[in-house]
């Protein structure tokens, strides 16, 4: 059976996806509760790499020692259709108990931890300390030629701090990735 599509038609068929789905790329934070067992993280990562999806941030840790479950928090970007596909495909993995899209479920709190090693002397050293104070970064290591700063905050705050430290001698940076929880009383089961 052939499908006839009229020119100029605004029908919403499978052949006219542009009329159905937004092509706006959105950033989403997903919380995935999984069994804490070997290979689960590899299956989740494999889902993304096998379909060409990108992970912007990834954190994982055991959250329930007695129940042997872990929480994977990942940040990804895509069209609304792609995000829905990701959530559906994650939910089909046997070891996955729950998938929550914190971006659409309401407001959430997101934080990231980063360490910055900044080398320099003289005015650059003084300026790096001044900026660290403004950003509420802590000095966790110091030598005569370098500082190591620890900073927590949103990814945007971490990015802004990095941009300001680069001209002052930023040598190395380590970031944990986003940790996120929904605001208020509502929460996900461990």
TrEMBL record:
A biological process term (GO) from this entry: isoleucine biosynthetic process
Molecular function as annotated in GO: acetolactate synthase activity; acetolactate synthase regulator activity
Keyword Transferase found: yes
Domain (ACT) ranges: 29-104
Matches recorded under CDD domains: ACT_AHAS (cd04878)
Record keywords: Amino-acid biosynthesis, Branched-chain amino acid biosynthesis, Transferase
Top-rank taxon, per record: Bacteria
Metabolic or biological pathway: Amino-acid biosynthesis; L-isoleucine biosynthesis; L-isoleucine from 2-oxobutanoate: step 1/4; Amino-acid biosynthesis; L-valine biosynthesis; L-valine from pyruvate: step 1/4
Entries under Pfam families matching the protein: ACT_AHAS_ss, ALS_ss_C
Database matches in PROSITE patterns: ACT
GO CC list: cytosol
Catalytic activity line of the entry: 2 pyruvate + H(+) = (2S)-2-acetolactate + CO2
Gene3D superfamilies per UniProt: 3.30.70.260, ACT-like. Chain A, domain 2
Enzyme Commission code: 2.2.1.6
Subunit structure: Dimer of large and small chains.
Biological role stated in the UniProt entry: Catalyzes the conversion of 2 pyruvate molecules into acetolactate in the first common step of the biosynthetic pathway of the branched-amino acids such as leucine, isoleucine, and valine.
Stated family: Belongs to the acetolactate synthase small subunit family.
Descriptive protein name: Acetolactate synthase small subunit
């Amino acid at each position: 059976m052939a499908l006839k599509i009229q020119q100029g038609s605004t029908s919403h068929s499978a052949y006219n996806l542009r009329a159905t789905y937004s092509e706006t790329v959105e950033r989403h934070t997903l919380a995935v509760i999984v069994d804490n067992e070997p290979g689960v993280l590899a299956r989740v990562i494999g889902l993304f790499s096998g379909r060409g999806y990108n992970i912007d941030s990834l954190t994982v840790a055991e959250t329930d020692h007695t129940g042997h479950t872990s929480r994977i928090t990942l940040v990804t970007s895509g069209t609304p259709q792609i995000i829905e596909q990701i959530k559906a495909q994650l939910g089909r993995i046997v070891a996955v108990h729950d998938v929550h899209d914190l971006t659409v479920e309401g407001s959430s709190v997101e934080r990231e931890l980063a360490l910055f090693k900044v080398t320099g002397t003289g005015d650059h050293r003084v300026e790096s300390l001044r900026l660290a104070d403004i950003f509420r970064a802590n000095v966790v290591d110091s030598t005569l030629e370098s500082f190591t700063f620890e900073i927590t905050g949103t990814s945007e705050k971490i990015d802004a701090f990095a941009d300001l430290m680069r001209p002052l001698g930023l040598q190395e940076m380590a970031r944990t990735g986003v940790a996120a929880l929904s605001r208020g009383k509502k929460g996900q089961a461990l």
